[in-house]
Design brief:
Elements (H helix, E strand, L loop, with lengths): L7 E4 L12 E10 L10 E5 L3 E4 L7 E10 L2 E2 L6 E4 L4 E8 L4 E8 L6
Antiparallel strand pairs: 1-4, 2-3, 2-5, 5-6, 5-7, 8-9
Length: about 120
């Protein structure tokens, strides 16, 4: 679920007990952008003991591939199927001020909390 232009919340259910191969100790969440405005594409991974995590520091208006796998004392299980989520796009507008002899324009970004 997309939370903002830089955050996505990922939720999943526990591995069915019959498929666990032991007690689950942690989860690994892998995510990668499908395109990048800030440089090279890279795959990131985070570890958590919860069945939910907020991925932060993401790029604005970019689609991400996300997959999760569980770990037990035996080792990691397989990754889940890939799910896709897109961060929001900030609302942008241009403010122009007309002075007696020139015009000055500035690109502004409207925060999510102020959008209608």
């Amino acid at each position: 679920m997309t939370l903002s232009s830089t955050e996505i919340q990922v939720n999943w259910t526990d591995v069915p007990e019959i498929d666990q191969n032991g007690i689950i100790t942690e989860y690994e969440v892998m995510y990668e952008p499908l395109m990048s405005f800030g440089g090279a594409l890279s795959t990131e991974a985070v570890i958590t003991t919860n069945v939910s995590i907020v991925l932060g520091g993401l790029e604005e208006h970019v689609e991400y591939n996300i997959s999760v796998r569980a770990f037990t004392s035996v080792g990691p299980g397989p990754f889940s199927s890939i799910e896709m989520a897109m961060t929001e796009e900030n609302s942008k507008f241009i403010v122009c001020m007309l002075y007696s002899n020139f015009m000055k324009c500035v690109l502004q970004i409207l925060p999510v909390s102020l959008r209608i």
